[in-house]
């Protein structure tokens, strides 16, 4: 599923989602939602009907453009009169992946993530992919998996291994803890990282996996790694801690500044709330 609004940021997400749907032989759902389409909005009935037709034409034109490049792809359309973030989160319950774009015109601004993307990344019920402008054109083959200090990201780890195997791509497991003290600390970190991935290594014995320890901050290490990656995969425990805080500081930085698509995989526990 991908959100469509006609912007350049959404176009990048759309291109990435279409390629990924084709790779997986999965149908692609195009969703456009707006509260302006609600009955009783600020528009009169005539203007509301015209707006509905325009938005449906946007979806149809988007579908036709996709089918020119991927004629065998099944593409479905959905037009909703509601808040875009709420619609995407609700529809994510039945999606394999939910894809959203970033916004901005260029330079540093091009990687700023809007409120809809942040909300969906924080509350989606399936893996959420945030695609920066230009991120639909992959800058490398490898998939980078961010592993935090707890090494408890079982869902993100299993998703990254499965995706790397699907693509036939090497996987880099990246763990950053800042500066290292004694050499023994580095050896200990390497052993813990290897132990955290041992189960998936057994399940994917032919996958090329590299362990990488970065002597810098986690956010900096992940953003730098994104420059040469096809995908950056992170896990997130999502509790209702308030807007802008549920993803954590590191993931917020990565979502705003990654050069490649970022996949946020929910790490849910019994204490977590949807």
UniProtKB/TrEMBL annotation:
Residues 1-132, 141-265 form the UspA domain. Gene3D superfamilies: HUPs. InterPro entries: Rossmann-like_a/b/a_fold, Universal_stress_UspA, UspA. Belongs to the universal stress protein A family. PANTHER family: STRESS RESPONSE PROTEIN NHAX (PTHR46268), UNIVERSAL STRESS PROTEIN UP12 (PTHR46268:SF6). This is Universal stress protein. It comes from Actinocorallia aurantiaca.
């Amino acid at each position: 599923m991908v959100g469509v609004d006609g912007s350049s940021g959404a176009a990048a997400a759309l291109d990435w989602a279409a390629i990924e749907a084709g790779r997986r032989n999965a149908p692609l759902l195009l969703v456009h939602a707006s509260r302006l389409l609600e009955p009783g909005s600020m528009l009169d009935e005539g203007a509301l009907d015209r707006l509905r037709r325009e938005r449906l034409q946007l979806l149809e034109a988007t579908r036709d453009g996709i089918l020119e490049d991927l004629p065998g792809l099944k593409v479905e359309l959905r037009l909703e009169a509601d808040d875009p973030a709420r619609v995407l989160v609700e529809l994510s319950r039945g999606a394999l992946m939910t894809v959203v774009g970033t916004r901005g015109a260029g330079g540093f601004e091009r990687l700023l993530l809007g409120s809809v993307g942040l909300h969906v990344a924080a509350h989606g019920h399936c893996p959420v992919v945030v695609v920066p402008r230009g991120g639909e054109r992959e800058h490398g083959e490898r998939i980078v998996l961010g592993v935090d200090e707890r090494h408890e990201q079982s869902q993100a780890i299993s998703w990254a291994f499965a995706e790397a195997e699907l693509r036939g791509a090497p996987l880099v497991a990246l763990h950053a803890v800042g500066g290292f003290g004694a050499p023994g600390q580095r050896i200990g970190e390497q052993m813990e990282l290897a132990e955290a991935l041992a189960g998936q290594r057994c399940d994917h014995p032919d996958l090329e996996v590299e362990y990488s320890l970065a002597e810098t901050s986690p956010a900096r290490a992940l953003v730098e790694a994104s420059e040469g990656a096809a995908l950056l995969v992170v896990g997130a425990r999502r509790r209702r801690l308030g807007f802008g805080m549920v993803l954590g500081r590191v993931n917020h930085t990565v979502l705003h500044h990654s050069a490649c698509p970022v996949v946020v995989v929910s790490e849910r526990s019994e204490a977590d709330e949807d």
